[in-house]
Amino acid sequence: MDVIREIVTNLLVIIIISSFLEIMLPDGNIKPFVRFAIGLFILIAVLSPSLAFIYDDRDFQISVWDDRLDEQVSKDIESGSQKIQQQINGQSNDLMRKKLEGQISAVAILVPGVDDVHTEVTVGEDGSPLKLQLIVRPGRKTTVDEVEPVNVLGSSQEKGYTEQDKIQEKIKQVMNNLYGLKPENIQVEFEGG
Predict the structure, then answer these.
(1) What would the pLDDT profile of 2-57 be if each residue is shown by its tens digit?
(2) Could you tell me the CA-to-CA distances from 98 to 113, 125, 129, 162 in Å, in that order?
């Protein structure tokens, strides 16, 4: 009689828990797996007391949770998992850096007067850009003569302000606006001087 009572109480607990899980889970691909797991628990709940009753002299306890790892083995596992985590972080940061370099190069090419850009980015642990180095190849002069801009409002630009200075200032402004990099963290060099 004790065996039947134990089976019934185990089944009632499993049915109550499974009912809550069925209600909580959204319709989708997970429900069949949950039903399968619940079926296994029901099977164990029925077989465990039955086998204990039939084979009184044997112990059918599942002692997986009681297994303890040796301290050295657990330290080896922990150090191995930390190495794997560092490799994963390093690969994702490297991938993030390469994609960011391509994106920054594409944006910098849009600045007037820039023909080509090579970008090197230093990223932080979280993948955010910390320092930026751009090697710019300025565009060639077009055959059409450029018209001198007319100074209507009396601009405060100096006469010694070269084309490269304008390009450098524009690139720093764009990178500051898009990526939040401070101008002192952006280094712009021009190819060939």
Answers:
(1) 778 888 888 898 889 888 888 888 777 788 888 888 888 888 888 887 877 787 76
(2) 24, 15, 11, 31
- The Cα–Cα gap between 58 and 52 comes to 7
Residues 40 and 99 placed together within one structural domain of the fold: no
User: Is residue 35 domain-shared with residue 116, that is, in the same domain?
Assistant: no
Given the structure tokens 């390009």, which residue do they identify? 167
Strands (E), 91-154: 114-123, 129-138
pTM above 0.70, yes or no: no
Domain count, the chain: 2
Distance CA 116, CA 138 (A): 7
Give the pLDDT confidence of 52-86 residue by residue, as tens digits.
778 776 665 655 555 666 788 888 888 888 888 88
Q: Per the domain annotation, does 82 fall within a domain?
A: no
Q: Is residue 147 part of a domain?
A: no
Query: What CATH number should be reported for the domain holding residue 128?
Result: 3.30.300.30
Contacts of 165-173 with C-beta under 8 Å, sequence gap 24+, read 166/113, 167/111, 167/112, 167/113, 167/114, 167/136, 167/138, 168/136, 170/111, 170/112, 171/108, 171/111, 171/114, 171/134, 171/136
Choose between 186 and 34: higher pLDDT. Answer: 186
Amino acid at 183: P
Are 83 and 89 in contact by the 8 Å Cβ rule? The answer is no
